[in-house]
Amino acid sequence: MIKKVLIANRGECALSILRSARELGIETLVIYSKADANQSYIYLADEAICIGDKFSKDTYLNMDAIITCAKEKSCDAIHPGYGFLSESYEFAKKVVDEGIIFIGPNPEVIKLMGDKIQAKKLMEKIGVPVAKAVALDNQSDEEILKICTDIGYPILLKARSGGGGKGMRRVDSADEIFHSINLAKVEAKASFGDEKIFIEKLIEQPRHIEVQILSDGDKAIHLFERECSLQRNNQKLLEEAPCNFISMKLKEKLYKASLDCVNATKYTGAGTIEFLVDNDENFYFCEMNTRLQVEHAVTEMITGIDIIKEQFKIASGIGLSINQEDVKCSGHSIEVRINSVDPLNNFMPSSGRINFLFTPGGMDTRFDSAIYKDFDVPIYYDSMIGKIIVKDNKRLNSIKKLRRAIEETMIEGIKTNLGFMYALLFDVDFLKGRLHTNYIKDKEEVIINKMKEVAKNVHERS
C-alpha cells in the first residue's frame, strides 16, 4: 500500500482525498497557497506546505514545485484530484519519471484521451458512435466555411485539450464562425495552455449521461450511470444517479461502450466516459475524463463504494477486490454544487468572509466542503465551495430530502447559488425529468423569479 501521498489540490477535493487516505492508514501531505492559508484540511493533514502566493500558475499548477515537495517530504505518491493538473500528460509523466506513483492512468492514456480528436477516432474504431468532428489545423477561411457547411449548423467549437466547458462555443451561422473561433482559442489557451480547437456537430438539447468505471488493468467494472444534464455555461450544477429517464437497453449500451473504451486503452484507475443522448436514444461519445469527478459522490451513495479508496488500492498494485456482479445500485442520489456566486447579479463570483455557517445533516445526507465559520473565500479559484449530496429510496423522495437539506443550510457573509438551486427543485419539468443541457439556459429567468418569490415569502414570515 502507498505509504505517504501528496495531495495536489485544494478545498473539498483535497479534504475528500485526505479522509480516504487517513482511513487507509496513508500519511498525508497537503500543499496550499497563501490565499488558502485558512483551509481546514491544513490542520487535519499529517504535514502541510505553503507552495506559493495566490495564483494557480504559481501554486496548484506549478509542476516542479509540487514534485519537489513530494521528493523532499518522501512521498511515494501524488493524488491530483480533479481540475488543476489532474489531466495533464506532462505532469503525470514528470511524476512517473521521478519514480513517484501518479494516482491515475498511464500518462500516455491521459495524452490519448486528452486529445479529443484522437479520442473520437479511437471510439469510432471500436464501434462507439461519435458526433462528426474536424480539427482546425491551419485551414484557410474558405476551407473552414466548407467544413462547417458539410457538418451542418449549428456547430460547436471545443478545445482539443482539457474540458469543463472551457473553450466551448456554439455557432449558428457562418457570420459568427471566425469571431467565435478567435474567442474559443483565447479561452482554450488561457485554460489549458493549448489554443488548438476543433469543430463538432452540435446535438440539439441532449441529455448528458456519464458512466463511472474502475479498472486495475486486469479487471474493469462500471458503477452505473449519472445524469449530468443540468449545466450553466457548460458547467454542471446538479447531478444524480442513476438516470431514471433512459431505457435499460440504452444503459447496457453505454456500459458496454465504456468498458470497451477501458479495454482498448488498457486504462487503470477511476475514470468517466461521457455521452450525449438525443430524444430518440441515439448516443454519442463526448469525452473521457481520466480522473476523479466532482460528482463521484452520487455514485458512492448508490453503490456504497469509496471511489477514492479504490484509486489508492489500484495505484498501490493491490487491484480491484470488487467484481461486476458485486456492484449493486441502491436507491437514488442527487448532488447540488454550492457555488459562491450571486444569481441575481448574473452569477457573478462572490468572495469574502463566512460569518455564520450551519450545515445540513440527517440520514443519507452529506455536506462535502472545507468551509467553516470565519473562513475567507478567496477570489483566485473556482467558485465551488462545497456540495450537498442526499440519497433516498426513490427520486422524488431524494428531491424532497435535498430541499430539506438546502433549507437547513445557512451560509452568511457571501452570496451562493443555493436559493437558485432550491427554486429549481420545484420546477415541474425538473420533477418530471425533462432534462437536457440547455435546460438552465431556457429556464433561468423562470427559476430566478421563483427564487425571488420564495425569498419574499420567507422575509414576510420572519
Automatic annotation (TrEMBL):
SUPFAM superfamilies cross-referenced by the UniProt entry: Glutathione synthetase ATP-binding domain-like, PreATP-grasp domain, Rudiment single hybrid motif
Coiled-coil regions listed: none
Reaction catalysed by this enzyme: N(6)-biotinyl-L-lysyl-[protein] + hydrogencarbonate + ATP = N(6)-carboxybiotinyl-L-lysyl-[protein] + ADP + phosphate + H(+)
PROSITE patterns hit by this protein: ATP_GRASP, BC
Keyword annotations of the record: ATP-binding, Biotin, Ligase, Nucleotide-binding
EC numbers on record: 6.3.4.14
Domain ATP-grasp: from-to ranges: 120-316
InterPro entries, alphabetized: ACC_Biotin_Carboxylase, ATP-grasp, ATP_grasp_subdomain_1, BC-like_N, Biotin_carboxylation_dom, Biotin_COase_C, CPAse_ATP-bd, PreATP-grasp_dom_sf
Functional description taken from the UniProt entry: This protein is a component of the acetyl coenzyme A carboxylase complex; first, biotin carboxylase catalyzes the carboxylation of the carrier protein and then the transcarboxylase transfers the carboxyl group to form malonyl-CoA.
Protein name: biotin carboxylase
GO MF assignments: ATP binding; biotin carboxylase activity; metal ion binding
Keyword Aminoacyl-tRNA synthetase (UniProt): no
Domain of life, per lineage: Bacteria
High-level lineage: Bacteria, Bacillati, Bacillota, Tissierellia, Tissierellales
Residue stretches making up the Biotin carboxylation domain: 1-445
Enzyme class label: ligase
Pfam families, A to Z: Biotin_carb_C, Biotin_carb_N, CPSase_L_D2
UniProt keyword annotation of S-adenosyl-L-methionine present: no
